[in-house]
Amino acid sequence: MTKKMVGMAVLASFVSLLGCVQAPQIGGAPAVAINVSEGGFDPSRNAAKDIAVAVKTAKAQHKHVLLDVGGNWCIWCKKLNACMEGDQAIAKLLKDKYVVVKVNWSPDSQNTSVLSKYPKIEGYPHLFILDATGKLLRSQPTDALEAGDHHDPAKVLAFLKKWAR
């Protein structure tokens, strides 16, 4: 493959990732997701309120809460988004077992007051699993879910299954 073709393939992949911004869907029904906006993360959202709504929803629906912390600037955040949306088994598990909240972290919107309640994040994306009362169950750096230049769907699925309610 020539360098030009590789560059075009990378650009096409990046553009396709930009289009992956909706909540995971199975059979036309979106998973319960809060703060899923164009680009994946909305820095104008109130993360504390989004998490409170997610906990209330999780309690009513007997689910756990998945906090996906990252930003639109983060290529690995986009890759994780694509993995979660593109893999049917992962999307179904998210729909059935989790309320998903995208928590923005960017230089102009760091959500410091909300994120200070959880263990320190060393890199992005980062996942937190909460129970239906808002209690932290797991803090997960996502590098352990990677395989080369992408997130491994089998590892992501195994992680989500382990912590599902």
Polypeptide structure, described:
- By secondary structure, the protein is an alpha/beta fold.
- It has one domain (3-163): Glutaredoxin.
- Helix content is 41%, strand content 21%.
- It is built from six helices and nine strands; from the N terminus they run αβββαβααβαββββα.
- The strands form three sheets. A five-stranded mixed beta sheet has the order 3-5-4-6-7. Strands 1-2 form a two-stranded antiparallel sheet.
- The N and C termini lie far apart (46 Å).
- Mean pLDDT is 82; it is low at 1-31.
CATH class: Alpha Beta
Report the average pLDDT across residues: 82
Q: Determine Rg (CA atoms, Å).
A: 15 Å
Helical proportion?
40-55%
CATH topology: Glutaredoxin
> How many structural domains can be distinguished in the coordinates?
1
Strand content range? 15-25%
CATH-scheme architecture: 3-Layer(aba) Sandwich
CATH superfamily grouping? Glutaredoxin
Label the overall shape: globular
Order of helices and strands: HEEEHEHHEHEEEEH
Structural class: alpha/beta
Number of DSSP strand runs: 9
Low-confidence stretches: 1-31
